[in-house]
What we know:
A: Archaeosine Trna-guanine Transglycosylase, Chain: A, domain 4, 0% helix, B: Rossmann fold
Amino acid sequence: MASASGSVVRIHPDDNVVVLARTVRAGEQVEVDGRTVTLPSDLTLGHKLAARDIAAGEKILKYGLPIGTAVAAIAAGEHVHVHNLRSDYLPTYTHDAGRQYVRGER
Amino acid sequence: MAISAYLRDDGRKGIRNLVAVVYVIECARHVAQRITLRFDDSTVHCFGWSGCYPNVHGALMMERLCTHPNVGAVLIVSLGCEGFDRSALRRRVEASGRPCELLVIQRDGGTAATIERGVAAVERMRAAIADVPRVPMAPGELVVGTICGGSDATSGITANPAMGAAFDLLIADGGIGIFEETGELIGCEHIMEGRAANPALGEELVRAVVKARRFYETLGHGSFSPGNAEGGLTTQEEKSLGAYAKSGDSPIVGILKPGVIPTRTGLYLLDMIPDGEVRHGFPNINDTAEIMELIACGAHMILFSTGRGSVVGSVISPVIKVCGNPETHARLSADMDVNAGRILLGEATVRDVGAEIYALMQEVATETPTLSEALGHQEAVLAYKTFEPLGPACFPA
């Protein structure tokens, strides 16, 4: 871990996301890179927040390395997850996203 | 702390002295399990091969597991008409110097009679292995496998790097470390290539991950569960970067396939993705399937990191649970041997927890039970696969 400041952890200096080090409730405020962000929803520890504004099509960097591509513009402090980040390799299978992992018609 | 190991006739040293009761077809599993359950302790383990059709990989896995250094004697339970070659397994176990008996349910009088014969056989074998020679064993003689299961976003920040630090200590002492799950290294192939002991091995490492990607693409999705996403992981490559951390920083000296036993010291990648056409389904149907393959490569014990909170143990080799998530640890502390979540809270460093894990590994090697062992966990599963032999570049120079 490169640095831990309160509620979030920045793993690598090049990262454009930080990781929640504790579970937070909707409406709580956390500090991300010196800016105070109000969280719109409950998030458990380990989830990612944008450390700065990220454009659609930009790579998301964690551990200093790409973990996929932003599929929508993401504002600083926003939750980064399956709704706005896609793998460059393989689809992600989640209960919430239904059959997003299935290729083609079904 | 000196490890007092069990010396086997083949010269390998075990850290447990078990009787394995093995079924060679699902139809014999009930009888094998009932025999095992008569011995309400941790020294009689049950596992087996479920399928009726013969499979070279399955036969090799059963042979390697039955002649694992932690196993002292083997009782084979057969139905009688299955495809598995029970006689070949018996010959190989006997050739290893271990006591071995075979029961065939169709010949030996059915369920109840075979159970009674089996219980008597296990009692005979336990007596026979009670005086196996004990010899000193250095920590650097251990073979240790590492796996992550029920991962969340903490696993790659706390538990996996801490297990990697423990691996570095083991390998510095001359031990053998094995990491695996090439499907969870997708996205790390070129970083890993740079850690290979030589360029030819580096190319083989990349080839192994390319094979994994093709396999999972054909099957429709990666090695990624809904719980991973609930735990904050979004993509396969994000999970991979976290999983990769459990390999530590030592050079990678070779590639293994399930059932290949490393002999030279150092860090190995276990390539568990089948070769050739995509067939037989997912290469890792669950964490236990991966654990069994590590054990078939000779792992004396398994380091298992979890964030969501897996509770599994294993037959044959003790499993040390390293929990990466402090909230999970608070709920499941009676299942978790190590609390790596302290790293996230700033209460310990990766290096501290790595040293703690390495010390615990040595205690477990002296027969201190892990929590999953004490709780009686003995998960086991084997599945059909097809492999080709390893190329020359996969072995340490």
